[in-house]
Amino acid sequence: MNLTLSAMRVSPVLWFAAALVPMVASQLIRLQQDDATAWVLWDYAGRLGALVMLFAVPAARAVAFRSDKLRMEWWEIAAWTVGLILADHYAGAWIRQTLNDAVPASVLGQYPETPGLLRAFDVVFGLALVAWNEEIVFRRCARDVFARWLGDGAAMIVATSLLFGIYHWWGGIGSVAEAALMGVPLMLFYRGAGALWPVVLAHYLVDIAEFF
C-alpha cells in the first residue's frame, strides 16, 4: 500500500522525464549499430520501455492510457489525415532535405534499409509502434505536463512541438525542424479530435508515406 501511494505521488515532470530516458538511451545505442536488425530492435526496446514505464506509474498510466471521447466527424478526421500526409510529404520533406544539405554535419544517423521480412514487419509493426509511442509521449503526456504551467493554448503547443523536434536530434537539423513544425498540426488535431487514436492513425500513415 505504501509503495502504491508513493508511486501515485510521483511528480508529472519526473514520470514524464523517466519515460524519455529509455527512448533517448535507445537513440544513443542505435547510433553505434551497423546492423539494421540491431538498430530496429534497439528502437523498439526504447519505445516499449517508455510505454512500460508509463504503465507502471499509476499517475502516469491515468494520463497515458486513458480513454477519451471522440469529438470529430469521420470526414474531419479524413481531411486532417490527408492534410498532414501532404504537408509532411511536400513541405516537411523539403525543409528536412534543405536544412540537412545546408548543415550536413548535423546528421548523425539515418533510418536503416531493412531487408525482406524485417522491412515488412517494421512497416506494419514498427511504424505503428513509433506512432503510438510518440503520440502518447509527445501529445497526450506532454500536453498534460506542460499545460500545468503554460495553459492549454499556444505556449503549450509551441513547447511540446519543440520538444518533439528536439527528440529527432540524431536525424539532423532538418529532421528537428520538420518534426517541430509537424508537431503543431498534430497537437491541434489532437485537441480538436479529443481522442488520441485518430492522431496515432494519421501519424502512422504519414510515416508510411515517408517510408516509401
What does this structure look like?
There is one protein chain. The protein is 79% helix and 0% strand. With 212 residues, it is mainly alpha-helical. The chain has one domain. Helix 2 (12-30) packs antiparallel against helix 3 (36-56) and helix 7 (154-166) crosses helix 8. Mean pLDDT is 94; it is low at 1-8.
Number of helices: 9
Rg to the nearest angstrom?
17 Å
Helical amount: over 70%
Topology order in helix (H) and strand (E) letters: HHHHHHHHH
- Give unreliable regions as ranges: 1-8
Main sheet overview = none
How many structural units, i.e. domains?
1
Quick one: how many beta strands? 0
Overall residue-averaged pLDDT value? 94
Strand content: under 5%
End-to-end distance: 50 Å
Summarize the helices and strands and which ones pair or pack.
Blueprint: H1 2-8, H2 12-30, H3 36-56, H4 58-64, H5 74-102, H6 116-150, H7 154-166, H8 173-193, H9 197-211
Helix pairs in contact: 2-3, 2-6, 3-4, 3-6, 5-8, 5-9, 6-7, 6-8, 6-9, 7-8
